[in-house]
Amino acid sequence: MTHDQDHRRHSDSVFIRAARSEPVPHTPVWFMRQAGRSLPEYREVRGGGTILNAIADPDRATEITLQPVRRYGVDAAILYSDIMTPVHAIGFGVDIEPGVGPVVQRPFRDRSDLGRLRPLDAATDTPYVLETVENLVSELSVPLIAFAGAPFTVASYLLEGRPTRTWVRTKALMATDESLWFDLMDRLADLAIASLRSQVEAGASAIQLFDSWVGTLSPPDYERFVLPASTKVMSAVADLGVPRIHFGTNTGELLGLMAAAGAEVVGVDWRTPLDAARRRVPAGTALQGNLDPALVVAGWEAARPAAADVLARGAHGSGGHIFNLGHGVLPETDPSVLEALVEFVHSSPGGATP
Ligand code: CP3
Fold first, then answer.
1. What's the whole-number mean pLDDT along residues 175-186?
2. Cβ(102) to ligand 1 under 6 A?
3. What average pLDDT does the segment 80-90 reach?
4. Alpha carbon nearest to ligand 1 atom 36, residue
5. Omega prior to 53 cis, within 30 of 0
6. What average pLDDT is seen over the chain?
7. How much distance in Å is there from the Cα of 207 to the middle of ligand 1?
8. How many whole angstroms separate alpha carbon 219 and alpha carbon 351?
9. How far is CA 117 from the centre of its chain?
C-alpha cells in the first residue's frame, strides 16, 4: 500500500489497529445502530417515508452517519444504510416498516424466484450509497465501516417475508430442497460481495458482515448450510486489505466457525463473556462487543460496572478488543449514557494488549 492509501484507509487509527490485533493506546469503541431513533438530531432529519427513502438521499444519509460521531466521539462511523438495500435496489420488492423491520411483498417460494435476484451493479443500482460513502470519507477523521447482510440473514427475510422468531420457512427450505437453498445462498453471497466491494472501493476502511439471526442454527447446520456462502463473501473481499468483522447474535456455539469463514474480528453478543469467546476463536483474532444494550437503557449506574467487566474480559488472552454493545442501541436509550460510556472506555487503562 502507498503512504496515501494507507492514510486514506486509516491504518494507524485506534480502531483499525485493534481490528488487526496491534497494540493500541486505548480500547476503541463504536456502537451498532449508533445512528437512529435514540438521537433527537436523527428524529429531526430522518423525514417521513421508510428508511429506504432516507438511505437513497446522500445528503441526509451523510448527515445521519456523522451525527453519532460528533456527539459521542466514537472511533468509527458506520454507513447509514440497511442490510436490505441491495435486494431492494434490484427490485425484489422489499420495504422496511417502522417498528417492524423488513417486509417482503412476494416472499421467496420456489426456483422461479431466483430470477428475481439478478446481480447487483452498484454504480447504477445504488449510486446513492457510493455518493454517501464518498461524502463521508472526505468529511470523517475516523474510519468508515461498510457492511452487508450475510446470505443467511438476508435469505431468512426473503423466505419468511417478515421478522420471525422461529425461522420455520428458512429451515424448511434447507431441510427439503438443498439444491435450491445453496443456489439462493450463492446469489445472496454475490450481492453481498458486489455491495461490499463497491463501498470499499468508494473509500470505506473496514467491512462488517451482519449475520444477525444465524444463532438460530446448530453448529453442524451452520457448517453445512451457511459457512460455504459466508466464506465465499469473506474470501472475495480479502484482497481489498481492509479488516473484516463477522457478527451475529446467539452465536456462542458458532464463534469458531464464524472466525473460520475469514474474519480479523468476530462480533460477540452479551450472552458469551469475552474471555470465553477468546477460547473459541484462533489466537490473534480480535473480538468486538459486548455490553448488553438493555443495561445502557437501565442507566449509567447499571452500565458502568458491566462496561468495566467487558473491558477486563476483553483484555484477556491474545487478540485485539473493540468495545461495542452486544447488539444494536435500543431506541429508548438515553444518549447521555452512551456519551459517558465512550468517555469511560477511552479513559480506561489497559485495553487490547496482543
Ligand atoms: O447506525 C448503524 O448501525 C447504521 C445503520 C444500520 C441500519 N440498519 C439502520 C436502520 C445498520 C448497520 C443496519 C443493519 C440491519 N438492518 C440489520 C443488521 C444489524 C442488526 O441489528 O442485527 C438488520 C437485521 C436490519 C433489518 C432492519 N432494518 C430491522 C430489523 C429494522 C428495525 C425496524 C424498526 O423500525 O425497529 C430496520 C430499520 C432500521 N435500519 C432503522 C435504522 C436506524 C430504524 C429506524 C428508522 O426507520 O428510521
1. 98
2. yes
3. 98
4. 99
5. no
6. 96
7. 16
8. 31
9. 22
Strands 144-149 and 265-267: unpaired
Identify the sign of the CA torsion 79, 81, 84, 90. negative
What value does the mean pLDDT take over residues 260-270? 98
pLDDT digits 0-9 by tens, 223-256: 999 999 999 999 999 999 999 999 999 999 999 9
- Which among 42, 80, 82, 313 is annotated as catalytic? 82
Contact 38, 332 (CB under 8 A): yes
Q: For 47, which DSSP code?
A: -
- CA 257/CA 282 separation, integer angstroms: 10
Domains, the chain, in order of start with CATH, read 3-346 (3.20.20.210)
Q: Which residues contact 23 (CB under 8 A, 6 or more apart)?
A: 17, 352, 353, 354
Q: Give pLDDT tens digits for 181-214.
A: 999 999 999 999 999 999 999 999 999 999 999 9
Q: What is the pLDDT of residue 350?
A: 55
Main-chain dihedrals φ then ψ at residue 303, nearest 5 degrees: -75, -35
The DSSP H or E segment spanning 336 is helix 335-347
Pairing assessment for the beta strands 77-78 and 206-210 based on DSSP bridges? unpaired
- Closest atom of ligand 1 to 247 CA is 22
Question: What pLDDT digit, counting tens, does each position of 151-171 carry?
Answer: 999 999 999 999 999 999 999
CB of 257 closer than 8 Å to CB of 223: yes
Question: For residues 298 and 319, is the Cβ–Cβ distance under 8 A?
Answer: no
